[in-house]
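Researcher: Structure prediction, please.
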Amino acid sequence: MAWFYLTLAGILEVVWAYAMKQSAGFTRLTPSLITLVSMAGSFWLLAIAMRTIPLGTAYPIWTGIGAVGAFLVGIFLLGEAITLLRVAAVVLVISGLILLKLAS
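Model: Predicted structure follows.
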């Protein structure tokens, strides 16, 4: 279950990052509330996952899911550029996450 919680925590990290972008600097109420609630949920699930998964594995995977997810949200929802260098960077992040999972 710890890996499930960690994955869900990473997904909520993507949610709060996107909602924060939509909040326009916390000037819009609904996206601001979504940011705060999903942030709290993400931290809570990360804490539960870290009861079992070591910090050195859990935290990088949590942030990696958030980074890759935010990259994909940026491309598909916000129209950000897809460049070879950006894609290569994300492939490296994903490779690192896979190696961390295999090493744990």
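Model: Residues 24 and 31 are 9 Å apart (CA to CA).
Researcher: Thanks, that helps.
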